[in-house]
Structure formats: structure tokens, C-alpha cells
Amino acid sequence: MHRQLANMKQTLFDQGYLDEQFIQLEELQDDANPNFVEEVVTLYYRDSARLIQNIEQALEKSPLDFSKLECLMHQFKGSSSSIGAKRVKSECTQFKEHCRVGNADGCKRTFQQLKKEYATLRKKVEVYFQFARQIGPVEKACRSK
Amino acid sequence: MIVEGIRGDAENFPVGMRVLAVDDDPTCLKLLETLLRKCNYNVTTTNQARVALKMIREKKDRFDLVISDVHMPDMDGFKLLELVGLEMDLPVIMLSANSDPKLVMKGVTHGACDYLVKPIRIEELRNIWQHVIRRKKVDSKNQNRSSDQTKAHPASGEGHGSPLAGNTDQNGKFNRKRKDDDDETEDNDNEYEDNGTQKKPRVVWTIELHRKFVQAVNQLGIEKAVPKRILDMMNVEGLTRENVASHLQKYRLYLKRISTVATQQANMAAALGVKDSGFMHMGSLDGFGDFRTFSGTRLGNVALSSYPGGMLGRLNSPGNVNMRNLTPSTLIQPSLAQNLSSSINSLGKMNLVLPTSNQTPSLFQGIQPSLELDQLQHNKGTANFTSINNSRIFRTGSAGAALGSSNNLLNSPMSNPLLLHGNTQQPLSGGRFGNQSAPFTSESFNNGVSDPANENWQNRVDASKMHPNTLLSAEPFHSQLPLNGLRDNNSSNGTYLQNNPIDLSSGLALPPFEDSREMQCQVGPMGDVQNMSQSWSEQRQGSGIVNQKMDIYTGGRSSGGASALVQQNGKLVTESIPRSNEDFLFEQPKLPSGLTPQGYDSLDDLVNAMIKREQDETVPNGEFAFDNYSFGAGM
Predict the structure, then answer these.
(1) What ipTM, to 2 d.p.?
(2) Contact B121/A24, CB-based, under 8 Å?
(3) Rounded to 5, what percent of chain B is helix, strand, coil?
(4) What proportion of chain B, given as a percentage, has pLDDT over 70?
(5) Cα B532-B533-B536 angle, rounded to 5 deg
(6) What confidence score (pLDDT) does residue B606 get?
(7) How far is A93 from A76, CA to CA, in rounded Å?
(8) What is the rounded distance in angstroms from the CA atom of residue B507 to the CA atom of residue B518?
(9) Which one is predicted more confidently, B327 or B130?
């Protein structure tokens, strides 16, 4: 089971969904903070939903306020990188670049892409956590033995 | 905790090092918190810069280190950085997802002792404690150093080599330079350790002390002001050359900052049209809000307060604190203006105002003065002013208030919370530059009630570090802002005057240096100020008040900003200021004489002190605003 979990994780890394930052988060998880990673990720999704909405609204305006968009995206990028959301982060970077040159279409396109990655990651991570939770208790039991 | 040496857990340092983490992003904040805890630090978090400032100001020794995100909605991280650096002299580390070298440079110039890029790794955090140690060392050394250093440059900033951006930065650099004896830094003298005593009990630069300091510096001339001579002139027992030297260093930085700000402010003011309360809010000004409130209450006191002693009494509380404390119930809350008015009304209450004034002066020094004054004049209600003042005033109250006082006036490099400490955020400080003046004047004053003004002033005072300059520059306003007269008049005229504008100045507790400044506070544009003050005078009769205010300003924060203003106003201020609050009130704003830029050194403290004192007297700022507002309005 553990191996399975490890494999899941490895896949996520291989596919580029997550990066080393995620490992850092895991390392911070300990007895004092047993669900740290999950907590942080949950927090991320909650907070970023708001950001995404803001960006969406901003993208509907016309003409586009690139500096504002860039600013919003900067925040989003910051949080995404904090949890190690690699693909999402790279979409953010691209988005910012489009903003910088004033490419409205590019922004919109990239944003769609970003949302997709974001959603995908969320699902995968949820599955991962669910699995980990299942294993978790087992692990503890073993340890206590 | 332990005051000297390592704060926090001295034995096991860095274990238990008290860190304040500020980041508006909850994910990042949580992560940061956990990382820091893993390093065995004692962590406090907040997602609002304003709250952070408040926490820091509440208890100066509460934290060893601050880590702050650059990008925050309520206040720019750099502004927070400046304020903290100025007011508190705490090491600040910047955090950002953006690794653009330009930003990093900005961080450094604003005084950050480090700049980390997100996502943060724990390894990076494991070493941050070194910044705390380094700073402590620098501080001790600074104290030791004496004249050599100060000589070098009026504003340590000059050293340029090290962007003294923040005081902290300065210190660090300072030390280094000293050793090397070159780098432009100001002192770089070798006197690196004069006494060789590493840790001396920190000298508290009360308003009174600061005022003396500023006076001495002004007399000697900022260029020639060397610690030894200053020390002799001040003639204070127990004060060492090192203390003076290090204070001078800070003061220089402050002045530098103010002048920069002033310029910016001038520009800004023009653009803003002073009224802009936004100014106050600008950037860190937000903090002003707090400040305001703080100032608000303060203002009432300050401006009104009986300038005389009354205020001082209040102010007495540790410079910075005064302001804060004073704010009686945050009169200020309601628009600063209101506060001002109330403050003014309360005349007696606001004593605090003075401290803030300190700040304002600084603010004024900056370009603001011109702006402000103009505004004041124009605005009549120069609410801005008041607001600015208020903020300033409060600020000064607070710990020397980081100019935070929204008053942009404080402009003084926002980074240093300048006097504003007590006050809420130093709105001034942040905004300082450009913003400061604008908002400051316009906002508060218009309130008519001088309260705003007071507030501004107060804030300013705090900001004194920052702004005073701006304000001061305004010298025109010094013209003795009727504020002084206000005080007297408080009762008579529209009380507001009394409290606010002037109080603000006073509040600033500007140390003597601000004298001129105080005047400035109000004065944004010096010329204007004069007019204003005159008008006030007429109104008030009390022109003396103006003087007072001026004092406050100068007193308050003169640091940095003040100098600028002071210079201009110097005349005004100096004249007015020297007086201890009492005088101010009655003194006719000497404004014209030009405020002598007082040297502010540790503006914060001084300013606060000054402010306090000033409170009684000051609030010139308030006055200024009043003019426009309507004196009668009083608040």
C-alpha cells in the first residue's frame, strides 16, 4: 500500500504536476503537524479559487488591464509555487509573459490552459490524499507495534 | 525580553527567536509559519501589514525579526519595510515570488537585510538569525562610534555605498564602512568602536533630547555637526558620543529620506492636489489609517491639548507610545479630520499629538510642505493636512512614529516608521514620498476640524521621520501655522487648530530639530504655509500656536524629513520650536525665520518625544489645516 502511494506520488512528479516544493511540505509534516500537507493544499485551493475568479472577471473586461492581471497572476503564482504545483506555475509564468507584452489572446488562452492544469492537479492530489489517509492509520498502527 | 543583546532566548539563540511573518497569501503564510516553527523560532503571523505594524509598535522589543511579503494589498511591502526599519530598527527580510533583480535592489535600498524568493526553502530560513545578531552588533557599535561617523554624512545614506535605506541597513553598512573607513558611508571612520563597549543600554531619545539634538545640529550646521560637538552642545548628562553618533547617523538618513521624499512629494502633491487623502493611504499610508486613528485621538489631544505640559505629560510615555497611548479612544477613527477636531477640542488630551508632530515635521520636510501648504490653503479644509497631520502626529506619538502617519508628510522615508510609531501605521512614512504630502494636507485639514489635521500631524509626527521633512519643507506653512496659535486659541478659535495642526507638530515631539519643521508640517508648500499661518495668526491670534506646531514637527521627527523642512522652515520652526510646548503655543510662529532643520537622529524617539512635547505645543500641522478648514470649525 505504501508502495502504491509512493508510486502515485512518483507519477505525479514524473508527469510534472508536482515539484520538489511538495517534498518540502511533506518533510514539514510530522507528529505535531500530521496533516500538514493536506491542510496547506486545501488552503491553497480555497484561496486560489478566489484568485481565479478575480482573474476571470478581469479577463472579461475590455480592454484588458494587463498590469492588474499580472498582479493577480503574481499572487497566484506565489501560492502555486509554495505547494509545488509545477505545471500550474509554469502556466502562470506564461500568462505573465503575455501580460507583459500585452497579448490579450495569449492571456486568455493560457488562462484556459492554466485552469485545466489546476483542476487536474486538484483531482490527482485529492486522490492521493485519500489514499494516504487510508494508509496512514495503518502506518501508525504498525509503528506502534 | 532581554533588552540588550539577543532578544528572545538568549542562551539558545537562535532558538526561540521571535519572528513576525507577514503575507497576505494564506497558503504562503501557513507554509512560512510551519517552516519557521521547524527552525525552532517563535512565530507570529498576520496577513495584514497594518496589523503587523501595530503589533510591532505595541512593544518594541516584541520581535527580533520581521519577514514580509513584498506584494500585499493593504500596504506595500517596501513601505512596511521602511517603516519598520525607521521606527524600530528591526531587521526585515523581504519575500517574493518575483526574483526580478530590480525588486531585490529595491528591497536592499529600502533597508531589507535579505530578500528571499518563493517558494522558500527551509535551509534559507535556518540562517536568517544572523541578521538579528548582525544588527545588534551594529547597534552597539554605533553607539560606540562617535563623531567619526556622523561626520561623514549627514544622512548616512550618503554613504551610499550602503543604502542606508533603512536604518538597519545603515547600521550594517555603517559598521562595515567604518571599519574600512572608506565607502562613502558616513562615518566610515575608523572609530568603529569607540568605546569598545559592545552593548550599552540603549539610550532613549526622548523628544526633549531629540529636540536638543536637533537644535545642536542645526546650530552646528548639518555638515559640521559632529557627535562630539553635538554632545557638548546638548549638554546632557549620561549621553555619550557614541549615542549621539548613532543617533546622528539615523538622523541623517532620515533627512536624506525626507529630501527624497519631499521631492517626490512635491511631484506627487502637484499631482495629487493634496487633498488626496489617498495620499495618506498611499502605500503604507494605509497604516496611517491606524495612525490616524491614533492620531485622531491624539490629535485632539495634541492639537488641543494643552500644548503645554499637558501634552507632554502624556507624551512622556515613551515617545512613541505616547501617541499611541494618547489616542484616547481612538477618536481618530472617524476620519482623521474628525479626530483632529476632536483632538483639538480635547486640547488637553491630545498631548499626544505632539509626538506625532514629530513626524509630521519630517513629512513636511519633504516636498510635502509645499504641497501641503498649497493644499491647505487651497483646501481650506486641508483636510489632508489634518489627516496628514494627524497621522503624523500620532505617529510621532508612537514611537517616534514611523511616520507612518498617513500624512505623507512624513514622507520621510517611509521605511522608517519614524516617529509615527505610536500611531498607526505610519501612513506617512510609507506614503512618504509623494503621497505623503498630498494626502496629508488635504485630508486632514479639510476636515475643518483640525482633527484631521491633527491626525495628520500626528501621523506625521510619527512619520516625522519620514515626513517631517516633507512637511517641513513646506515651511511655508510653518509660518507658524496658526496652529500654534491654535493651541492657544483652541478654545477660542476653532479648537481644531490647536489640536491638530499644531499638535501634530508637537505631537511629533519633534525634537528640537523640528522646530522649524513643525511649522512645516503644516506648511506643505512653504510659501503657502506662511500664508496659512498668517491667516491663522490672524484668526487665531495665537499664531504662536503655529510656532508650536512647528515645533512639534520639528521636534518630532525631524529626522530626515524634518531636516528638509526644517531648513526651510527652519526659521519658522526653530523659532517656534525651541520652545517647549508652552512656548509654542504662544509663540508666534516664527516661521519666516525658517525652520532650522534640525538634525534628527533617531528620529523615532526623538520625534516621539518631540511629539509629545509638541503635542502640547504643536500641532502646527493641525493649524495649518485649520486655516483652511475653518478654524472655527474647530472640529
Answers:
(1) 0.88
(2) yes
(3) 65, 5, 30
(4) 29
(5) 90
(6) 52
(7) 10
(8) 9
(9) B130
Looking at the complex, report in whole angstroms how far the Cα of residue B24 sits from the nearest Cα belonging to chain A: 9
Number of residues assigned to chain A: 145
State how far the Cα of B625 lies from the Cα of B613, in Å rounded to an integer.
20
Beta strands in B250-384 (DSSP E): 382
Q: Pick B26's closest partner by Cβ from A33, A47, A77.
A: A47
Set of cell numbers at residue B101: 533583480
- Residue B417 to residue B86: CA distance in whole angstroms: 5
pLDDT at A127 over 80: yes
* Residue B158 buriedness (CB in 10 A; 0-12 / 13-18 / 19+): middle
Tell me the pTM.
0.43
- Asked if B123 contacts B149 with a C-beta cutoff of 8 angstroms, the reply is no
Q: What is the dihedral of CA B318, B165, B255, B81, to 10 degrees?
A: -40
**Alpha-helical segments (H) within B47-146:** 49-58, 77-83, 101-109, 122-126, 129-144
Tell me if B97 and A71 make a contact (CB, 8 A cut-off): no
The overall average pLDDT reported for chain B is 54
Per the CB < 8 A criterion, the answer to whether B358 and B400 are in contact is yes
CA distance A67 to chain B (A): 13
CB B273 within 8 Å of CB B325: no
Using a CB-CB cut-off of 8 Å, the residues of chain B touching A26 are none
Neighbours of A27 (CB within 10 A): 13
**Separation CA B528–CA B343 (nearest Å):** 24
d(CA B161, CA B462): 27
